[in-house]
Write a structure and sequence with these properties.
Elements lengths: L12 H16 L5 E6 L9 E9 L2 E9 L13 H14 L7 E5 L9 E5 L17 H4 L2 H19 L18 H17 L5 H12 L19 E3 L5 E4 L10 H14 L15 H12 L6 H22 L11 H9 L10
Antiparallel strand pairs: 1-2, 2-3, 3-5, 4-5, 6-7
Helix pairs in contact: 4-8, 5-6, 5-9, 6-9, 7-9, 9-10
Length: about 350
């Protein structure tokens, strides 16, 4: 059984089911829908309230997922752009190249559930969890090296499919108010995020990393869709170890594919060598990941060092914000591993304040 936490948001699920039933009946054009079995899943719903349930119409049962926009006190991201998550799922689903959940309806009126929400069809499969880390225990650790290789290859092909999505199909992801290019937009956003999330308590190392990233920003970045949270822990896999669906698009941007590759490699390390745990046999090595990505996309790896440093900063800021906003104790006294990794990459000192 997974040790992943449940992120309930204090909602009365019986009341939510009673409110959602008539709304759903109107969308389906039927007299009545019985909304039943609502529950919060393990390990999902940190940034957006996530509830699984069944919608019954006569003898027909649909398994659905409800995602509700975050309340201010649970807001994980600056400018969360909740509607974008629905729109990106709809756009990618229509293209057919990236396996994403089927987004069904979006509701902007807070009168129904108190905040905007959307529904999508539930996917069935297994996710490589980080609590406990998949390299150490769980279904992936118990799989054979050949099965893990299938999983890794399928995951890489989905990552490459994301990076082949035409920019014209996802222009709504752009943040022109933050800058002209994707890299510039991301730097502006995360600089603001640091102040918004941490106020006057921004670690000195964060300022140093932002300064370095600004000074060394690549002069000609490649514009393209970036998933934003690219890792196998945000993918669901079937019994055949192939990808069922790609999830969690809150951080989508036009920062380009290298931003995703930097994030992917960061979490490869964080969930293995940074914990003193060997990477599972069958999961591609760093070089295999780079080689296959280039083969599948027809692109060259460029400015990877910069993007890996930036990935560590972004993940580190999210970690600091989450721990402080949820008032979680730093029980083992460990410094933030994401920020530590980026600081090591630049040979920065003075990381003692990164907890």
């Amino acid at each position: 059984m997974s040790d992943a936490p449940v992120f309930a948001k204090g909602r009365d699920l019986d009341a939510a089911a009673a409110a959602l039933g008539p709304w759903l009946a109107a969308r389906l054009g039927v007299a009545d829908v019985d909304v039943a079995g609502m529950f919060y899943p393990q390990g999902a719903g940190v940034s957006n309230e996530t509830i699984l349930f069944e919608a019954r119409t006569g003898d027909h049962v649909d398994e659905l997922v409800l995602r509700v926009a975050p309340a201010r006190e649970h807001q994980m991201f600056l400018e969360p752009r909740f509607r974008l998550q629905y729109d990106i799922l709809a756009a990618l689903r229509s293209l057919g190249s990236v396996r994403v959940p089927e987004a069904l309806w979006y509701e902007d009126d807070p009168a129904v559930l108190g905040r905007p929400f959307y529904l999508m069809r539930r996917m069935r499969g297994r996710v490589p969890v980080s609590m406990p880390v998949y390299n150490a225990s769980g279904w992936l650790a118990e799989a054979t090296p050949a099965q893990r290789r299938v999983l890794w290859d399928s995951a890489m092909r989905q990552l490459a499919a994301i990076h082949r999505v035409p920019v014209a199909e996802v222009l709504f992801v752009d943040r022109p108010g933050h800058g002209a290019t994707g890299d510039e937009q991301q730097l502006a956003y995360w600089s603001r995020f640091a102040t918004w999330a941490l106020g006057d308590d921004v670690p000195e190392a964060v300022h140093a990393l932002l300064d370095w990233l600004t000074t060394h920003r690549p002069p000609a970045s490649v514009r393209g869709l970036s998933w934003g949270d690219a890792r196998i822990g945000n993918m669901m896999f079937g019994d055949d170890f192939h990808v069922v669906g790609v999830m969690d698009w809150e951080q989508a941007s036009l920062a380009g594919p290298m931003a995703d590759l930097g994030w992917w490699l960061l979490f490869d390390d964080i969930h293995s060598v940074e914990l003193g745990v060997a990477r599972l046999d069958g999961l591609g090595t760093r070089q295999e990941t780079l080689d296959l990505w280039q083969e599948l996309t027809g692109r060259q790896v460029e400015n990877l060092h910069w993007h890996e440093v930036f990935a560590g900063l972004k993940a580190g800021l999210l970690g600091l914000h989450t721990r402080r906003s949820m008032k979680l104790p730093n029980a083992d006294g460990r410094a933030n591993p994401f920020l530590q990794r980026s600081c090591r990459m630049l040979d920065l000192t003075g990381t003692a304040d990164l907890s």
